[in-house]
Amino acid sequence: MKNIKDDLSKQLLLQKNSGNLNNTEELKTFQEIAQNFADLENGIAVLSDLYNNKSYIYSGKIADELDIFKKNEVRQIESIWEDDLFGKLNPDDVLQKYLLELHFFKFIKTIPVEERKDFCVISKLRMKDKTANKSLVHKMFYFSNQYEDVELALCLYNFDFSLALHYEGAIINTANGNIIKQNESENASFLSSREKEILKMLQKGKQSKEIASLLFISINTVSRHRQNIIEKMKVSNTAEACTLALKLKWI
């Protein structure tokens, strides 16, 4: 999970036109939106300044229920990640959330700046502590500047009216309701069928030579597939890849 989070952090914080967020009026507008959400929805809103690696956290009454932050509090942290809140969530769901947000960042860069505000990530996240019988709905929007850099991210959290039994997530167009990507379909195509086949064999303890023999391919081809898996999944080795793939139910 750390490697996926690190890769997402790198892409968010090291954009080519990165500098200072100079449009203070725009920042103020989104701060007001975050505050209004916390007040109206009793939720938690996190507005992240990606240029300066800091976030503003606005908390409604949900903060008391989660025993985190303080209701009606505005807090500034020197990070774009609300790790205190993530610590309350199911770690496997947080992992899938990071992965979907990485896809969202890559997707948002492919569409015109003026259309980007119409898209968001929606995730249902399970809790892991005393509130484990509840779940949160998380929405995230990216906002871009004239240079096409994503300079602000707005994350909104409130309680889900139904209990999530597993992670659910999608990238949607809020203007027309179209689903751009869903975690299930994305997971199905993230690795090729041959890569999944090899990963299953590795998970069962088979060595490259044995895999090559069983699949009637060369050891070099197996090695190439193993390297592709490591690069795609942002892990250090195939053992980590197997562990992560099992958590994500890719194999």
List the helices and strands and how they pair.
Elements: H1 2-13, H2 24-41, E1 44-49, E2 54-59, H3 62-66, E3 74-77, H4 83-86, H5 91-108, E4 119-126, E5 135-144, E6 150-159, E7 168-173, E8 179-182, H6 183-190, H7 193-203, H8 208-215, H9 219-233, H10 238-247
Antiparallel strand pairs: 1-2, 1-6, 2-3, 4-5, 4-7, 5-6, 7-8
Would you kindly provide a written description of the structure presented here, covering whatever features stand out?
With 251 residues, the protein is an alpha+beta fold. The chain folds into 2 domains: 2-186, PAS domain (Beta-Lactamase), CATH 3.30.450.20; 191-247, Winged helix-like DNA-binding domain superfamily/Winged helix DNA-binding domain (Arc Repressor Mutant, subunit A, Orthogonal Bundle). It has helices at residues 2-13, 24-41, 62-66, 83-86, 91-108, 183-190, 193-203, 208-215, 219-233, 238-247; strands at residues 44-49, 54-59, 74-77, 119-126, 135-144, 150-159, 168-173, 179-182. An 8-stranded antiparallel β-sheet has the order 3-2-1-6-5-4-7-8, with helices on both faces. Strand 7 (168-173) and strand 8 form a beta hairpin. The radius of gyration is 20 Å and the shape is globular. The model has no long low-confidence stretch (mean pLDDT 87).
